[in-house]
Amino acid sequence: DAKTTQPNSMESNEEEPVHLPCNHSTISGTDYIHWYRQLPSQGPEYVIHGLTSNVNNRMASLAIAEDRKSSTLILHRATLRDAAVYYCILRDGLDFGNEKLTFGTGTRLTIIP
Amino acid sequence: EAQVTQNPRYLITVTGKKLTVTCSQNMNHEYMSWYRQDPGLGLRQIYYSMNVEVTDKGDVPEGYKVSRKEKRNFPLILESPSPNQTSLYFCASSFTGMGEQYFGPGTRLTVT
User: How far apart are CA A4 and CA A72, in angstroms?
Assistant: First the structure.
């Protein structure tokens, strides 16, 4: 799987929008961009995923650069509950075998009250 | 409620004493998987299963066994645990394809 690069940590104020960047310069045309997060003492939790177009769901938005070499996860109004480690993961859409997720080190997001 | 459950949540055991960590999902998912999470190493896949009676090794399968006799259950078996298997274990499940994966709450295992 292609590699992703994320900042080790970020801070944001409560009730402010948060933009979490991810670089994936070696992404292939069939790689989907997935975001998961892991809250303290919990298992990873799916956030969102996309291929080319920007995506929105009840948790977040995913903005994908036109060249697909980077993407940004947007939390529109951060709450204390959003404090977690956020992982940006690439998965090949043509891989119909193992559904393995390759977790990197992620971005530790701290929310300041 | 759609969920993946794991039992036990915490376990302290001694070297060589066989143990089983259970994983169950109620979403009729075909795919199930086990990961271990260690500081500095992130999450690494141990075994996975594409469907009933179909299992295969992940990245770190040594010292572990699995079985998939029913679609909902995917137990992780440590026949002879060793201290280097002290870790936080997560079970995950999903439909096959690009959909979201659901993770269990984790099992913290300590082998002394």
Answer: 12
